[in-house]
Write a structure and sequence with these properties.
Length: about 180
């Protein structure tokens, strides 16, 4: 009888341990699936936020590209207007010089006949005032269709200097686009 009780105790102990391990493993797997679900939800949320960030940054970059293109167009217009202004200024200076030469060609006797207006002085122009800056001369010659080498040769300067001035005013890049 002792053997039967012994075997019943051993079998009940093994059954209890097996049952306990079964319950423990089922709870562990159940908890793990909850954690996995939470991690999956967290991962999905991160991916969703990354997608939103990508979309927002792409939209911002497109807007920035449009603004850059608008600025490039405005710079081209400004450079074009500046070139036209330089040409017009040169024409005015040349016409002023011609009219000044005509006035100087009046004989001295005719000058004595003209009475000066009271309070108005005759303005003498310096040669330096009528000279154009080197940058304007380069720009005007470039607009006349001369290339960098011709401009450098006529102005007795280096081709690099001419290229520098032209690149500063962006005329060179505008003509090639």
């Amino acid at each position: 009888m002792f053997d039967i009780v012994y075997w019943l105790v051993v079998l009940s102990t093994i059954g209890t341990v097996t049952f306990a391990w079964g319950v423990f493993l089922s709870q562990a797997l159940h908890k793990r699936t909850k954690l996995d679900e939470e991690y999956e939800k967290f991962e999905e949320r991160i991916l969703e936020l990354m997608g939103q960030f990508r979309h927002m940054s792409a939209v911002r970059l497109q807007m920035l590209d449009r603004k850059i293109e608008e600025l490039r167009k405005l710079i081209k217009q400004a450079n074009s207007l500046y070139g036209q202004l330089c040409v017009r200024e040169t024409e005015l200076i040349n016409s002023f010089n011609k009219s000044e030469e005509q006035v100087e060609s009046v004989t001295e006797s005719e000058q004595e006949k003209v009475e000066p207006v009271e309070g108005v002085k005759r303005v003498e122009r310096n040669q330096e005032d009528s000279d154009l800056s080197i940058e304007r001369r380069i720009l005007l010659m470039y607009q006349e269709g001369k290339d960098e080498h011709q401009i450098a040769k006529e102005l007795n300067m280096g081709v690099g200097e001419v290229n520098l001035v032209l690149s500063l005013f962006r005329f060179r890049s505008d003509s090639h686009q």
